[in-house]
C-alpha cells in the first residue's frame, strides 16, 4: 500500500491493544523517555509522534502517522534469537502498510543521543520528501 491516509492510524487495533499501550505509556523505559523528550511537542521537524502507539495487534514505541514512521527502542529483551526473529516478522507485517522503521538500542540512546537525534531528523526529512513525490 502506498503512503497515504486511507488507512486509520491504528490499522484496526482492538480495545485490548489500546489498554496495553496505555499501560506501557505509564511504564516507559529510561531510553524511551529520553527519546520521547526529543520527539514530543512536534520538536522533530514539526512532526507529531505518539508514544506506545497501537498498530493492528502491535504497539510501536513511537509512531508518526503523517510520515508512516515507526521508531523502536530495543532493550535487552530484544537480544535473544527468538525475539529478534519475532521482531523481524513484526516489522515485515507493519511494512505491508508502507511503514518505515528506525531501530535503536537502549545503549545507543543512552550513550549517544545526538547521533540518534540526527538519524531521526534525517529519516523524517527523507520521509517528508517521499510524501511530496507521491
Structure characteristics:
47% helix, alpha+beta, Endonuclease, Chain A, 134 residues
Describe this structure in words.
23% of the residues are buried. The protein has one domain: 3-Layer(aba) Sandwich (Endonuclease, Chain A). The N terminus is likely disordered. A hairpin with a 4-residue loop joins strand 2 and strand 3. With 134 residues, the protein is α+β, with helices and mostly antiparallel strands.
What is the radius of gyration?
14 Å
What name is given to the CATH topology?
A: Endonuclease, Chain A
As laid out across the biggest beta sheet, the strand order is 1-2-3-4
> Looking at the structure, what is the overall shape?
globular
Quick one: biggest sheet?
4 strands, mixed
pLDDT below 50 for ≥5 consecutive residues: which ranges?
Answer: 1-5
The helical percent reads: 40-55%
- Report mean pLDDT, rounded to a whole number: 88
Q: H/E series, N to C?
A: HHEEEHEHH
Please identify which CATH superfamily we are dealing with. Answer: VSR Endonuclease
Quickly count the helices. Answer: 5
> CA-to-CA gap between the ends?
12 Å
CATH class reads Alpha Beta
Domain count: 1
Structural class: alpha+beta
Query: Which oligomeric form is depicted?
Result: single chain
**Tally of strands:** 4
CATH architecture: 3-Layer(aba) Sandwich
